[in-house]
Structures are given as C-alpha cells and as structure tokens.
C-alpha cells in the first residue's frame, strides 16, 4: 500500500520561500512519477508540475516556471516542492500525488498526500 | 493548454437519484481523462481513469463514458457519502489540467 506523508502547515511572509516535503512508503519510488497540485481557499485543483525520480526530469505548468522547483531525494523516498517569491495568492493547500503511467490506460493520480496548508501573510 | 469545462457547477439531488456530470475538453484528448471525488478538508480521491475504468475499491454505482472532447460521470443511485465535489482531469498532455469542479449537494 502506497502512502504519501507531507510536511506540516506553514505560515510565510510575502517575498519569502517555502519548501514542502512528500515522503513515500510502499510502491517503487524511483520509477513512480510525483506531481504537485494546489488548491486555493474555496477554489478548484491546479496542477503545478511533476518529476520522475529515476530520470530526474521535471516539468512545470507555464504559470509556475521560474518560481517553482520540484526535486527528489531517492535515498529518502521524498519529493520536494519549493516555491519562491511568495505572494498572498499562493495561499493554498498543496498536495503531492503519485502518477501512474498505465500504458493503454494513460496516466492517473492514484495516491495523494494529506495536503500542506501554506498561508502567505504579512 | 487544454481547457476542461464541467457542467453543471452545482447539482442538488436526493439519496437514490441518478445523476450525471459532464466534462468537455477544448480539444481531443482520446480517452485520457480521470475523475476525482473530494470531500471538504480531504485530499481528492481517484474514482475513474481512462474515461471509463473504475479504480480499485470504487463502488460500481459510479460509471464513466466518453472520448475525445465529451465525457460524463454517472452515479446510478446516490448514497449519503457521495455528496462531495467532483473534478475531471485530462492527462493527454502536460499541463494536466482539471475542470472547475461540480459540487453535489443534498436536496
């Protein structure tokens, strides 16, 4: 059984950075892809980007290019999301999710972390 | 980017009702569409992938259909635990966009 456990909630000042972790247990971390999705208060889901640990390759939604970095530590089975130059509209719950590449069935996000609430406020 | 439009955005129904939620894509995405259920304060939960394949453990009252630009999620007989928000997501190409959500409320 795969489990993704995220780091705790954060309160940050505008202009600062935040780094959230997502630790995996079960599954085959290196070969699994991890994506990050955020949800602003009362809003829908927004894909931010993803990474495949075994290749070390990441991709980002254009909106977040240059301000978001996704990395992994394979030895710790942990993925990280760093967001810099935080603004008030970055206030959201951030989720990590495992992405299955199911061949004929395509991709899907089957396991999700519990979410990390980031509040950006002066 | 591929846009997904769900309808309706809000749906009021009763236990036992049959409901259908539609998701339209701005361009063809083959069958690379997933559906998620989200209860307030919780992470989304995968219901369906490849448009119509039920994820393990999801009750059979949920079904999905469609291809290319038109998709639907049907709940055949609503149960109390089904009142939640539902999202579609396209996984045909990066960025993997979501629909705006459909909130299903008890009538």
Helix content of chain B: under 10%
- What's the story with the biggest beta sheet of chain A? 7 strands, mixed
Beta-strand percent range of chain A: over 45%
Encode the helix/strand succession of chain B as letters: EEEEEEEEEE
Oligomer: heterodimer
What is the count of helical runs of chain B? Answer: 0
From the alpha carbons, calculate the radius of gyration of chain B and give it in angstroms.
13 Å
Whole-number mean pLDDT of chain A:
94
Structural class of chain A: mainly beta
- Could you give the distance between the termini of chain B? 36 Å
Order of helices and strands of chain A: EEEEEEEEEEE
Spans of at least 5 consecutive residues with low confidence of chain B: none
Backbone CA Rg of chain A: 14 Å
Write a compact overview of the structure shown.
The complex is a heterodimer of chains A (122) and B (107). Chain A is mainly beta and 122 residues long. Chain A is built from no helices and 11 strands.
Commentary on this structure:
Chain A is mostly beta strands. Chain A has no helices and eleven strands. Chain A has strands at 3-6, 10-12, 18-25, 33-39, 46-52, 57-60, 68-73, 78-83, 92-101, 107-112, 116-120. In chain A, strands 2, 4, 5, 6, 9, 10 and 11 form a seven-stranded mixed beta sheet that branches. With 107 residues, chain B is mostly beta strands. Chain B is built from no helices and ten strands. Chain B has strands at residues 4-7, 10-13, 19-25, 33-38, 45-49, 53-54, 62-67, 70-75, 85-90, 102-106. A six-stranded mixed beta sheet of chain B has the order 2-10-9-4-5-6, with no helix packed on it. A four-stranded antiparallel beta sheet of chain B has the order 1-3-8-7, with no helix packed on it. The chains are: A mainly beta (122), B mainly beta (107). Chains A and B meet through strand 5 and strand 10 of A and strand 4 and strand 5 of B.
């Amino acid at each position: 059984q795969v489990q993704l456990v995220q780091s705790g909630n954060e309160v940050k000042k505008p202009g600062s950075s935040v780094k959230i972790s997502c630790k995996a247990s079960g599954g085959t971390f290196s070969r699994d892809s991890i994506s990050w999705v955020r949800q602003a208060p009362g809003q829908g889901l927004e894909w931010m980007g993803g990474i495949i640990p075994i290749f070390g390759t990441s991709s980002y939604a254009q909106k977040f290019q240059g301000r978001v970095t996704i990395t992994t530590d394979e030895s710790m089975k942990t993925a990280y999301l760093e967001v810099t130059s935080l603004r008030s509209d970055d206030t959201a719950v951030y989720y990590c999710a495992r992405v299955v590449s199911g061949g004929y069935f395509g991709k899907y996000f089957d396991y999700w972390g519990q979410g990390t609430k980031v509040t950006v406020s002066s | 980017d591929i846009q997904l439009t769900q309808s309706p955005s809000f749906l009021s129904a009763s236990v036992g009702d049959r409901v259908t939620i539609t998701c339209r894509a701005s361009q063809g995405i083959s069958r690379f569409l997933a559906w998620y259920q989200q209860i307030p304060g919780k992470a989304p939960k995968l219901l369906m992938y490849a448009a119509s394949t039920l994820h393990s453990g999801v009750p059979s009252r949920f079904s999905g259909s469609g291809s290319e630009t038109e998709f639907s999620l049907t709940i055949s007989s609503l149960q109390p635990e089904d009142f939640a928000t539902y999202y579609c997501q396209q996984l045909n190409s990066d960025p993997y966009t979501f629909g705006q959500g459909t909130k299903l409320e008890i009538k």
